[in-house]
Structures are given as structure tokens and as C-alpha cells.
Amino acid sequence: MSDKVRGSRIRNVAIFDEAGNVISPSNPLDISGTVGTNVVQYTEGDTDATITGTAAMGENGNDVFPLQLDSSLNLEVNIRAADATVTVDGAVEVTNVPATSLVVTPGSGTWDDATVTGTGSTAPINASLVGGEDGAGDLQALHVDASTRDLQVDVTNLGAMETLLSSVIDTNNTTTTPLGGGATYTGTATDVIGYAAVAVTVATDVDSAASGMQFQFCPDSSFGATNTDSHDFNLDASDSEQRRFQFPVTAQYFRVKYTNGGGAQNNFDVQTILHRQNILTSIHRLGNDTTLDRSAELVKALILGETSAGGGGTVNVKVSPSGALEVNAGQGDDPWNCDITANTIGLATQTTLAALLTELALKADLTETQPVAQALDTGWLTIRKNYTAAETNTVIQAGAAGETIHVKHLTVTADNANTVDVSVLIGFDSATTPTGADCVLSHPGIAPGSGMSEFYGEAGVASQTTGDDVLITSQVPTTGSISVVMIYKITS
Fold this sequence. Notes:
Low-confidence stretches: 100-118, 329-354, 361-376
CATH architecture of the domain at 377-491: Sandwich
Strand content: 25-35%
Helix content: under 10%
CATH superfamily of the domain at 377-491: Nucleoplasmin core domain
Structural class: mainly beta
Distance between the termini: 180 Å
Radius of gyration: 54 Å
Largest sheet: 5 strands, antiparallel
CATH class of the domain at 377-491: Mainly Beta
Number of helices: 4
């Protein structure tokens, strides 16, 4: 700067444009033209058109970039950064958000009952509503009861539910067209997935062919020889012209196949109904006869019984290999109870049941000329005694002067609980149990659970002296007992 200027005060400074004109309010600087490269503020890459006007810029920490607008001239904002925090005071409307563009992270506050029970303007803005689509395709919030907070469900319109649960007629397997002799009706495979049971009613006036009623299930619609589960029955028109059947769904496809007998039908009605719920089996009148061809539900069960050993335990009831129920009647103190196993009975000497029946004369030749009434003998009495201790000349039945006791049948059984064999002696006498002619039963040791029986014919055996008693002498049945049954009568 020259000395002339140094020390002088500059009062005004003018700025000129490239044309040499002073920039002033009446002549503002024009930066929208392309007079020189100095008026260009931003170039989009190397090939894009230049931007006319002032561009808003932003820095990402390293580089400077212009802010972007979408096609609707809205400023694009990405708040996906992990450290981004947006505070909104008021309502926010979010539209056209890609699935990956909006991340909502809940706060760290305590979620308590008071937070989610606000109403109206006090409802928390961080509470979420559960909604669903209504019949018009619009989203609606689910409602809860104001006091109980139970979800409110409108059950006034049950049309859809009724449709879902209702049964339908399977037209593929329903017909009313009669068949000629030997002709066959084959229904069309119906997909029964979604149903629980199939019910079929068949009515006709002509017998079917042998196993001519066939109700078939198949995993596919081929109904081949190896993959068809067929339930086959006969229709006997003389027994019943109408039959009904119920089947659980066991495969995806079902059909009816019916082969007629030799005669032409006057009527043939088949109706198949598909049920979405389980149904009962066929109902039959108790007074009607039944046949082996009738359908029935097979029940497999195991019969249990309480064991006689005590303690409340149970055991399985046994049957023989042929299916006959095995019975052990030798329980308790009843002397008529005997162990019947493999056609034998628990006597002192094992014998067949047939031989025992002969011995006891329980077989009777009852013919038309010998009615039951004639085979009966009157006047016989039965007495039963049970002994748990040793007996010596104990009276079973007392005699009286001028009377005679006749014994027809005498049985002694030993309790299963006995731990020793028990000797028994029974006979007629007034004082001492005899061992000679008046002895009616004698055994050196009856084993536990077994017994002995004597039978003296229809007339019985009598004491040789009037007024004699029937006496017993026996050992101690340790931990158990013995029982005596005597069939007798007294004559004068």
C-alpha cells in the first residue's frame, strides 16, 4: 500500500460482477446462470447435470454429501442407526415403511398394571393393541370387558361355526337307482380328511351277493387290491330290508361298493353322511334278534378280581387256552367249595370230576317217564359245622330215644389256611366216636385245601342202635379250620 493511502480512511467498498456492474439492491448478484464456472455450487459426480441453486449438505463424519429427497420431494431420513434416538411429542404417522426400515426398541421402564389400564387420553402411548380383520377387510382392535378385562367375543353369528361342525351328505356314495340281478354299484372316492365318522344307510328288497355290502377306505383314490381296507357285510332282505353302519375315518378316501344278488331290485337306497364329530354305533331294539353279520364294536378288556390273600390286592382272572373261564371254588369255609382245576377236584385222592359226580349220584336219568318230581326224596335235612380246634366225641347231630339217624351224604373239607393235615373220624354212637361198623367217614390226614366225601345212596346209612348221636373226633386244624356238611334224616 502506498504512503498516500497509508493513514487514509477508506469510506466505501464496492463489489463488481463479471460485467463490471456494482452489486447493489437494485442490481443483485445473479448466481443462477452459467456465465462462469464460479457460479456452480455442486456437481453430481463427473457426469450428472449441475445443480442450479443452493444445495443442502451434510457430513457423515468423514465426507460431505447432499441431503436427498424422494420422488415426492420428501426429505429421506434413516433412523436405523443403533445409537439413533428420536423423541416425539405428539402423534406420529408412519406409512410405506419397508420391513427392515423401522426398528422399535422398548424402553427400560417397569411394565405394571397401572401402565396398561389407562383409558382415553391417559392410555399409555407405549401400550400395544391387538387387532384383527373384520368382515369388510378392515383392521379392528379386539375389545376387553371394562371390569373383568375378559376378551369380548361375539357369538351371535354362529353361521361359520355351524358350517364348520355340520354334517354333509356324500353325493359320491349316495344313490336311489335300483340294480339288476348280479349288478354292482360302485361309488366315487371321496376325500374324508376333516371328518371324524362316516354313516351309511342301505335299503333294498333283494338280498345282496355274499359279502356284497362293502364299505371301503383307502390311503389314495386307487382302491387297489392291496391297499383297500374293506368292511364287508351281507344284506338278508328276509331279516331286514334296511341296514345302517357307522365307521371311524381310517384313511383319506372312502367309497361304497354294493353287489346285488340274483334278483332285480324294486328299490335301492343308499345314503352316506359325513360327520365332523364322533357318532354312536347302531341302535338296536333289545327285543329284536341279532345275527353274527350285525356290526358291533369290539371291546377288549381285562377282568380283575380281588385276591383272597387279603390286603386288597387284585389279580387277573384266568381262562383256559380254549377260552373257558377257570374257576377255583375252594375258598372260604363252605364245604361245598372245591378246587376244580383241569377237570379234577381236590379230594384226598384226586379223581376226575365225572367220577366224582357219579360217586355223589348227582347224575340223574331223567326221562319223560321219570319226571323230576318223582326223583326227589323228601325229609332230608342238611347240617353244616365248622371246627377250628381239636374235637373229641363232639356231637354233630344228636339222636333221641326211639329215633334213628340216616346219613345220605357226608363231606369234610380242610381250609387252605391249614398248615397241617387233619385226621377225621365220624360215626354213630352215644359216647365214643366209633372206628368199626358204625363209622361213616374216616381219613388219616386231610391236606389243606382238599377234602373227602362219602355217599351212601338214596336210602342212606343208619345207626345200628336207636338214639345214637353222630359224633366227630379230629385233630387241631392249625391256623385254619375244617368244615363238615351232612345230609341226613331222622325216622322213628
